[in-house]
User: What shape does this take?
Amino acid sequence: MEKDFNEGIEYQNSGTPQDAVMNRVNQTFDKMTEDVKNMVDENERKNNKE
Assistant: This one.
């Protein structure tokens, strides 16, 4: 299962390059967290059906 972690990430020019990098890191982390939560929820639903 390949995912494009760039999907849904907003590109913003905000202040210094460090700000832009941290903004990107935070958005990517939030997206990955959401994806993992969705995978866990999906797995729990499958296990509850069995």
Observations:
- The first helix runs from residue 17 to 49.
- The chain has one helix and no strands.
